């Protein structure tokens, strides 16, 4: 079960002003909220009880009582740890504790949201593809580079592009038996949308790994694998949580491929391992 305090913190900037007041109150006094009837919490936040109930449903909870159960579990889990933003001047131990809590909950949410049937469908598509074309920008480019390396070691024909012009050229020269796999946290960047549109025009099967299932890219893709973007610290040097969940989704997909086609990929894995060993010994 994901830590509800982390979830609330990360949806805070996506909700209405009234719900934001509720978020702030819960985050500041979770133990107190556990003891309050819904009407009392609503009065303290100067909102209606119906708003509290709607907020609980937004969090995929069964109601206010369910929220209190989740708060109880979250308070016990954190045991005094903060679950807020990374702050200037914090020590390495404070930061590591926050990041551990954040990453653990991001992976719990990702696991909960992943659709096993979609994984199976994409694994089949990977196996049947003439060539797997991979595309990602900025931090997502790290994920597709990692996927390219692993797909190659499995004996699959793959190509990776982090430039829209090269990606479009590769797509234009490909066949309808190819598979386009795109990684994009937002799913709305101009390059991602354009490439998915090109693929649809060429009748090429597409897969999108994204945290935004309501994005334009999500509407265009044939298959959708949901990563998570549970928020980043304001002082972050780059994408962190979203990148971890994208790597996780990619690895679930590729390890499932290995599990299903183990007999086929075993020799490829052995050959690549031996070759790397020889290179390291030279």
From TrEMBL:
GO terms for molecular function: carbohydrate derivative binding; DNA binding; DNA-binding transcription factor activity. Residues 2-78 form the HTH rpiR-type domain. InterPro entries: Homeodomain-like_sf, HTH_RpiR, RpiR-like, RpiR-like_SIS, SIS_dom, SIS_dom_sf, WH-like_DNA-bd_sf. One of its GO terms (biological process) is carbohydrate derivative metabolic process. It holds the Pfam family SIS. Residues 122-263 form the SIS domain. It comes from the Bacteria. Keywords: DNA-binding, Transcription, Transcription regulation. The keyword Transcription regulation applies. PROSITE patterns: HTH_RPIR, SIS. This is MurR/RpiR family transcriptional regulator. It comes from Ligilactobacillus acidipiscis.
């Amino acid at each position: 079960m994901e830590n509800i305090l982390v979830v609330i913190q990360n949806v805070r900037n996506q909700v209405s002003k009234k719900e934001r007041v509720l978020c702030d109150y819960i985050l500041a006094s979770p133990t107190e909220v556990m003891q309050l009837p819904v009407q009392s919490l609503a009065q303290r936040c100067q909102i209606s009880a119906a708003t509290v109930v709607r907020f609980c449903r937004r969090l995929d909870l069964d109601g206010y009582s369910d929220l209190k159960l989740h708060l109880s579990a979250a308070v016990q889990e954190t045991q005094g740890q903060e679950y807020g933003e990374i702050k200037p001047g914090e020590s390495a131990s404070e930061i590591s504790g926050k990041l551990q809590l954040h990453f653990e909950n991001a992976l719990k949410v990702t696991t909960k949201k992943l659709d096993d049937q979609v994984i199976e469908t994409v694994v089949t598509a990977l196996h049947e593809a003439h060539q797997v074309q991979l595309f990602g920008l900025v931090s997502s480019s790290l994920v597709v580079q990692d996927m390219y390396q692993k797909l190659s070691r499995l004996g699959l024909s793959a190509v990776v592009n982090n430039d829209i012009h090269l990606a479009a050229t590769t797509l234009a020269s490909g066949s309808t038996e190819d598979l386009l796999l795109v990684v994009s946290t937002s799913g709305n960047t101009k390059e991602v949308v354009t490439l998915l549109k090109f693929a649809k025009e060429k009748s090429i099967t597409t897969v999108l790994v994204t945290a935004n299932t309501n994005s334009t890219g999500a509407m265009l893709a044939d298959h959708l694998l949901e990563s998570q973007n549970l928020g980043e610290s304001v002082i972050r040097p780059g994408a962190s949580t979203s990148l971890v969940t994208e790597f996780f989704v990619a690895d679930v997909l590729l390890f499932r491929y290995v599990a299903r086609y183990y007999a086929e990929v075993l020799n490829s894995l052995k050959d690549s391992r031996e070759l790397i060993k020889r290179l390291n010994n030279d």
